[in-house]
Amino acid sequence: MQFLYPTFLWALTALAIPVILHLFYFRRFKKVYFTNVRFLKEVKDETSMRSKLRNLLVLAARLLAILFLVLAFAQPFIPQKGEVKKGIKAVSVYIDNSFSMSAASQDVPLLEKAKQRAREIVSAHGPEDRFQILSNEFSGRQQRLVNREDALAMIEEIVLGPEVQVMSKVLARQKQALSLAKTDNLASYLISDFQRSVTDLTTYQDSLLPLNLIPLQSVQEKNISIDTVWFEAPVRMANQTTPLFIKIHNHSTTPVENARVSLKYGNEIKPLGSLSVGPGADRTDTVNITISGTGWQRAEVTLTDYPIQFDDQYFFSFFVADEIKVLSINDATPNRYLQAAVNGLPYFKLTDVNSQSLDYSKFVDYQLIILNDLANVSTGMGAELKEYIDNGGNVLLFPGRNANLGTYATFLQSFPANPPQSFEQVSRIVGEVNQAEFIFKDVFLNKSANLRLPSTQGNYTFGRFNSRAEEQLLSYRDGNPYLSKYKQGKGNLYVCAAPLAQEFNNLVNNGEIFVPMLYKMAISAGTDPRIAYTIGRDELLEADHQANSAEIVYKMKGEGGEFIPEQRAVGAKVFLTMNGQVKKSGFYDLFLNPGQVNHGYAFNYNRRESALQYFSPEELTERLGELVNIISALDTAVLTAQIEEDNRGTVLWRWCIILALLFLGIEILLLRFWKV
């Protein structure tokens, strides 16, 4: 047995006090007068024996009461884990307050159980000890060591939040705070559900910092979530119906039946029915959404699930332009059939420009650029078109009848795309449409019907290189390409084998092919802006810079209030960083002037913790090694006594107080009820 405060043992000298009292007080005699002294001798002997016995018992009770009272102050214990460090202790307690802690234990959410454990840890230490209370927020306030009362107050303030931290970062934060303590008596506690997705700790080898893990797990591990939402077409048009894809994932090992999904767009909530998802499987559903207006649009997909609900909503926003701009670059007069086809499309606007008077800086204003029978593609034009496509533009190339094949080859080589080799003035008919590709997908209701396909009176042959990622959209009956697509950067290059002039190509007269082809090419821009972002990720947001001065400050306003993001204006763009200022999922607007939205954003909670897969206490022990203490107390157990026992061994001071009170009670009973 050892003592935490052995200096209190000097108080054992107080044991002499009851001995002295016994020697001088209980030996005083009292005179008793009798009228008849015949039985005096017998009474004297009997009284003397009873008095001595009572006095000795009272003395023993007093000595034992003082003994155990002194021992209680000295705090005896039986050591179990080697030498016990004495003095002020610095303790760091991490409470996992991520959304996975909203799962239920036997009676309360895991977060409430974690806060209860944290209070017990703090209460198990002395008032002179110092504490760090850490959550996933990693705020500056949590990097200070505070006293016990402030620590208990900080525990009460912790609530569920969207932040998710891996355990290695948590431990690094704890070590950083404890390094500021003026003591070597340190301890670290991690209270979490220890999900596999965030528990990246491996074998623990720091013998200077005792690490204690307190795993908490829910009574059921069942959850489904909305994984992501996306549009098929990068560009949306007003009053048009476009497919919306919704991907739902089942994170549990049991099937989920009849999960209800709904879509909120505008002022309407549209039920999408119910669906079933197999264990550990994905389910992608498609819903047609009709765009009701222009400008920034907001929508929300909701899934009915319980009890984990943070991943049951998916917010997304998208922009609907007033018009789609198409640029036609011509050598001579514009093609009137092309003008008629484009101007016949709602919200489309065609601009014709001569190849000798181009303003390359205006390319970014157009969703589709058509090279109409150009004789040459200059080096400067080719470089600008390449940059335009890389940044998400679309170019449709119709080579001229007398094209300079050298300039074309140089331009196409930069992608790379197959170059034209020679012009063959023979009649050919298109025989196949690639209806699996976006341009012609879902264009024709009856795919088996006989379509009137384009025919040509002359076309270029192309060199074929297997290394070049050509995708044929329309093919001649002999298998040679008529219209090909090359994916480049964020955009697309479309190459036709024949000139657009009507004497060589009747495409302009074939409305059922030409019109939807132009429409789908224009809206297939690779610059599809993100429709949703994830809270907690260090993502760079991009928006059009609306001001000429770089000193103008953009503001963000949404579900979590109004704030100023970190921003940097570069040319026509402004780049934003949130730096953890977005705490709540929902919609946020970027603006310079109140009421005027420059860009709309949608933020969703991180799905990292949707998978409810945990490390068991046995797996944690095997993973981290023997230096880590796994505290797996039952829900009904009080952690304070267990921590004291782990820190000091078998603590005996409580028993000393109980025994001291017991012997004081025995003394009172002897003096009160044992009459001599």
UniProtKB/TrEMBL annotation:
Record Gene3D superfamilies: 3.40.50.880
Keywords, comma-separated and alphabetical: Membrane, Transmembrane, Transmembrane helix
One Pfam short name: BatA
InterPro entries according to UniProt: Aerotolerance_reg_N (IPR024163), Class_I_gatase-like (IPR029062), Double_TM_dom (IPR011933)
Superkingdom of origin organism: Bacteria
Domain Aerotolerance regulator N-terminal as annotated: residue spans: 1-76
Membrane-spanning residues: 6-26, 56-78, 652-674
CDD domains for the chain: A4_beta-galactosidase_middle_domain
Protein name per the record: Double-transmembrane region domain protein
